[in-house]
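FinTRIM family, member 67: structure, please.
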Amino acid sequence: MAHAGLVLDKDQFNCSICLDVLKDPVTIPCGHSYCSGCIRNYWDQDDYLGIFVCPQCRQNFNPRPLLARNTMLADVVDKFKKTGLQEAVSQSFAEADDVECDVCTGRKNKAVKSCLVCLASYCDVHLQPHYESAAFKKHKLVSASKRLQETICARHDKLLEVYCRTDKQCICYLCLTDEHRGHDTVLAETEIQQRQKQLDDMKQNSQLKIHQREKEAQDLRQAIFSLIRSARAASEESDAVFTELIRSIELKRFEVRELIKAQEKTAVSQAEQLLEKIQKEIAELKKNKAELDKLSHSDDQIHFLQSCQSLLAPPMLSALPSVSVDPGLTFGPVMTAVSDFKGLLQEVCQGGFVSIYERVRDVVIVGPQSPAVQLDTTQPTDGALSVQMEATEVIPPTGLDQSPVNLFNPLLNPGPSAPTFNFSPFGSKFSTGARQRHMQRRAHPRRK
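Here you go.
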């Protein structure tokens, strides 16, 4: 393939998550390919969100896409590995940030190793004599570096192979007989091994902290998911309770309205019956009075005397029940009782809402901030590495815990003074200040 003029970049066959050659490659809907295990683990971390993102183009997918093996890409990668093309293409030309081979002429290849004895860098082709010739067996090879001159003593032009713990710098053997005479010195390799051991301890400590934080993050995600689910259930249940309460109030309103109508009908019916009886008595009295008027104007004296003897006594008035003749007779006392019920219900709702707000405010995931954790790892003072790791104070995000929180309704913006909130359960607003004023009841007159 290389002889045919095909130029391949090994990065084209790398997974952008693990940065290694693709293993069991799969392709997601946006067209990018990843290792099957890498993309599954990457999406498992966001499974609780329900939104899955491509690590490269950041395109969102919902629901989670099904993964299918990219057979063609898998075959290409297998051939890539079998033919050794990965090593062949590594013989690429040096880019701007790469170390150039000091032996190549014309356009230089990328160097893979540097020799501390030759003080030169070599590509794979020109490095072969260091592996094959006995003359280069004692040369020390390191990873390609542009800083070869820094490994040479500027004063004696010798390799820096000794470390002075007193002055904390690398020196050559000739420096031991000069300005570093009597200092605490060791071979640079010995010091590197000791430093590497300390770095390994630090890495292990950091890995433990990473695991701890990852577990805490997972627990926090689970707490967020549980709280969201609980909040949704609580909202639905509270809606059902308040709907039932509203239905009960509507029923009481209907009952009071029907009660007033029934009382109106009964009172009017009784009054109309009494009015009819009174009107009948008035008609009889008027008839008797008309007869008396007619008799009093009669000129026939004999007829007058005979009629007077047969004249009946006027009818007696029947006893009537007490009748209220107050022109201002209304259902005013009823409205007073309704107003008293309204005020009492508002007070009960007011105290109940305060209790609800306080309990809502108590549902938190993140509690009070713990004291800062400090880790101090200090090694012996003989030129060893001293490391101090201190956890910095966590600064809360902007807008969180920066001002007094409303004690009764955390959803309202806190004011500059004591927390207040307004609500109007039945059309009238109540402004509250201290908690005692919330629970204080007004005296309502009760009709006996």
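Notes: The CA atoms of residues 175 and 181 lie 8 Å apart.
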